[in-house]
Give the backbone structure.
Amino acid sequence: MFKVGDKVVYPMHGAGVIEAVEEHEVLGQKQEYYIMRLPLGDMKVMIPVNSVDQVGLRAVEPAERMDAVIATLGRPAPSTPGNWNHRYRANLEKIKSGNAFEVAEVVLSLTRRDREKGLSTGERRMLEVARQILVSELILSKGLALQEASSLLDRALA
């Protein structure tokens, strides 16, 4: 169980800080919820405490592990399916996993594909989401400002 002040990652949304644990009634059912604030977009999210494992909520990676995640961005891009639909689904599953290394793989492969052939609108949006998730975790893990985290990501991809 997480507590107030914990830095966590919510797959598909990014990293944030648990600000409170509150009981709310939703659809006639009372449940405890984590109230999480995401630093990017200054958004609040309510996550049912009893569905943490289901949604994949996890602690933010330590700074040393994020260094290893960033290092993967300098490697050759992994092979991806040629069919955009298969590629999109494979990348979506990686993002949904919440695993920082898999999200970095999506950023790497879509960035390289964009440079070589360009991206569809859907894949361009997916790249932005994956980048935002990675940047938000970098901000909280390493204590960086938004611009610093974004620049670190850009340098690793160069």
Strands lie at 7-10, 14-26, 29-38, 43-48, 58-59. The chain is about 50% helix and 20% strand.
